[in-house]
# Entry
Amino acid sequence: MIIRTPLTLASVHPDIGLRVALARTPADVVEQVTRSGIRGRGGAGFPTGLKWRLASEAPAPDGRRHVVCNADEGEPGTFKDRALLSVVPDLVVEGMTIAAWAIGATSGVVYLRGEYVYLRDELESCLARRRAAGLLGNDILGTPGFCFDIHIRLGSGAYVCGEETALLESLEGRRGEPRNRFPYPVVRGLYQAPTIVNNVETLAWVPAVLARGADWFLGIGTPGSSGPKLLSVSGDVARPGVYEFPFGVTVRAVLEASGGEDARAVVVGGASGVCVPASDFSRGISYEDLCTGGAIIVLGPHRDLLDVAENFLEFFVDESCGQCTPCRLGNPVLLEGVRSLKRGECGPERLGELRRLGHTMKDASKCGLGQSSPNFFLSLVDRFGPEISDRVPV
Amino acid sequence: MTPLPDTLAAEDADLVSAVDALVARHGSARGELLPLLQDLLADRGEISDLAVQVVADRLGIAPTEVQGVVTFYKFLGTGPRGRHMIRLCHTLSCVMAGARDVATTLETELAIPVGATTPDGAVTLEWANCIGMCATPPALLADAEAFGDLTPERVREIVAAVRAADVPG
Amino acid sequence: MITLVPPAAKTPTTAPGPGGATVRAVIDGREVEVVIGTTILDAAGTCGVRIPTLCHHPDLPDAGVCRMCVVEVEGQRTLQPSCVFPITRDLEIHTHTPRVAAARRDIIDLLLGEHYGDCRTCARNGSCELQDLAAEYGLDRYRFGERTEPLFVRDDSGPSIVFDPDKCIQCLRCVRTCAELQGVRALGIAGRGAGVHVTTFADLPLGSEFCINCGQCVNRCPTGALTAVDVTDRVRAALDDPGKHVVIQTAPAPRAALGEEFGLAPGTPVTWQLTTALHELGFDKVFDTTFAADLTIIEEGVELIQRLHRALVQGAPDVALPMFTSCSPGWVKFLEHAFPDDLPHLSSCKSPQQMFGALIKTWYAERNGLDPADVVSVALMPCVAKKFEASRPEMTDSGYADVDLVLTARELARMLRRQGIDLPSEPPGDFDDPFGTATGSGVIFGATGGVMEAALRTVLEMVTGAPVENLYDHADITPVRGFDDVRLVELTIPDAVGPVPSIIAHLIPDWDWLRGVTLRVAVAHGTATARRVIDDIHAGGPFSTCHFIEFMACPGGCLGGGGQPIPTSLEIRRARARAIYAEDAAYGAAGLARKSHENPAVQRLYAELLTDGPGGATSHRLLHTGYTARGTFVPTDRRE
# Structure
């Protein structure tokens, strides 16, 4: 495991956050999380406190609510959750336990991607340790009536299951096909019960927010993106690995830290992200500027951006669930379009059609996968005009 | 659901009792389908058409539903596969670091193309999407273990280790 | 009406507001007040805004996958699918902006690139929803590719349904139909990404699977991926063969629907024009299946009475009750697969089609000096499962195939058009003897509840010896009518019973044992409903104490059959039912028989052929049958 910067989370004392939380009412905990401004660190950036509040307020006819940890880290170029699960698994589980207290959940699931199966035993021992220490199970830390336990479920090789409703379908023993948007999982999630699905990193920060206070968290980052963020840096850099930066860090600063100063472009957000040209390296990584779950892939001076686009589209053709028309059929068309660009056979009119198709995919796909799959291609067409037009026959 | 015909019992009793043992462990709720299939694949080395029907029967769902799940997940799938899986990452950071050369080495070492299984049934070689080893590319998964910083020498060691661990079934 | 476990289908996307609270939507400038939770698509429908759809079907829970119906919704970053977007607050919606139009056009373009097949030779040419949308959105070329090679093998090996996966656009209407309406799941989804495709278990031919041939998937497929086996050429060849005597029997349900194929509104009956048209096509005789329906009622009614007598009077423990009707071949095959242990509950009566077929090749041929080998027996049916039924090896009691060829309503419409016959403008004609006379009871077989009503009319009159009108005005037993998934009705037999009619006097000594007895009967349609009813019976629920249950495989009964004109919806099925009940009432108004046992042709049959009476040896030889326990296991080559 290559961790290149000191991790704040490594210095967070275990179980202080949980004790702080249990000393407050669930509503107070939700309030504290809300006030910290923490947003989903898987990439979508939904305010965590709001998610928890909606789930805690949604009626649960049979009294069940669920906390799901999304450990289906599949975005190409992302590996910071793997690092967290290896280094600070207790914080992730503690975060889930605090969430359970906050929303009134009795059961939790860690949905661990099948590719990370080697982490399972360690996680199981972590859960066992915590059960033995009274940190999971009945009357947690002597709190009468607070009963919560967690089990681990393994994915089976499907990127789309990182989409929260596809993940829930998978947990219910079905194809990982995203659900329609309404109702949201906070209202009807796992087996129709109110459910929060939070990313590993989001959950890991929760104990710190409780232990150190919302103001501490708010003091880091930008006004719209509070707190530190873990980034997975890979590609043409001297020092690939996991980095911690405050939100708002510029692309350039990341490149300097990782030894990628000669980059011609940077992919921010993995295969579903965008291609940032050198002229934009002063832009910041945050929800309000360059939004990412943490994947930074650096492209050196000799890289052909169309090769990158081709690789990403191959990925999406393979990983689309295949339900909705724009994603199922649009990605193969874009892939063929990129290949024809590489061959120098894609004329300007065709390029226009492909661009419009990309916008249709963003506009009309059912879930985030399809909506973001054309991002990289579109950013090439929009931000690397000269480079693309060189490949377009007149 | 209808019990499977008696005529199956002799020939396929093994499979049926393997499924029943898994159902006893996991329960017969629909939500247990994935863990059940994962274990079944690990136990049997494949999810056959018959297995799909037995699982469907025991869980009270239709074979088409089980088939839909089996064919959705990359790590499941119908048809025979090797006793060991080598999955080479095909995503950007690994490809930029030379995953294709690694593939060539693997193909030479195993004498099969990517996507195939060695004739002795020991190893299946396939491409995988990002396995989260981007900081140490190129990388692969050999069964449940991840290996990064692959070089031809390292690949040969991994293949040798996999072969050494293989118990022909 | 008894409430069963609620069906899985049609879960609303959001709960309606308290007390049916409403909100205001402005759709393309038109203001509309809707109950909270109404989808944009439904709201648009109420104010006359048409939004194109593909995967949406009014009978099915929405999937939201084709994305044709996307619209712009105020406050939403992306376009939203109107079929699954519930309106929960005041909202402004635009359904035809340039952005929306561009997305829809791209979607159609993409689907055209996935769809492979030749429109010119497709059964759905002219009635294909994809073709219509392509025309509507002005598609002039294949922007996103055109497939030139098939990827799949077309399955035309079965008796009823042809599956051509290359024409499939993954709208999943068939998958949802098979699962939600029919509870069968012969069709499912496999693969993922660009490799997603609708298929059967192990990609086997439908004919070798647990498929009940109901054809409900065919009725809901927007393209030609699922069609019915077409035998029009074989019928034409028989008609053109001077050595063949070709007769056709026509079921009641197509008469209430065939007009739709010729531009008439649903529910416009064409019974009498049809007889003329069939004669013009060249059929030697045109018979009315309702004759055999009446015969079925006698045989099945007597079988019920015998079962009840054995159970209630003789105390026989092995009598299978409730008795199940057996005239729907989709339902019969469903039971054979899903609940083979329950086959003893099925009436041993053949369906009207097959009773009629056996009589045509025997009694009719003999009376008319015809060699049965030269008689071609054709049936016009609302059904594709009837094609399978005619091919069952059990159905050869005449020594020949009792029915040679089954035409669906859609096939017949094709034959008529091919011959230049405009059905609505045909002059009225009559059915041929010796089976010409029908009754209103035979006609209502075409609607869910019809068999039950016809049987009750006859059984009640046989037992009470008095007109059923004494119990039900105009003999309309309305409690068993309607479109609720399942209806459970209790009827108490009056204390005043009559003498046992002579035709069954040798079977039942008296009716005393039925005085004041409450008969519990039920009606269910759609095999998903049937599955819930059988599960309830196994669980000892309210249906386990029924005496008699009518099951129809298709939603709505035969009038919603898989061989009926496309499209279908509850509204269309209701209209067809009105036509059927109107025809029944017309028999009464004209002073004709409305009860099966009053049918003079049936009475003559018992006098001349079935002289040992209902359920007698001759009946059993020709009119009754047995069933096959099939189970759900499918042998495949791909084993471990």
User: Anything to note?
Assistant: The mean pLDDT of chain C is 94.
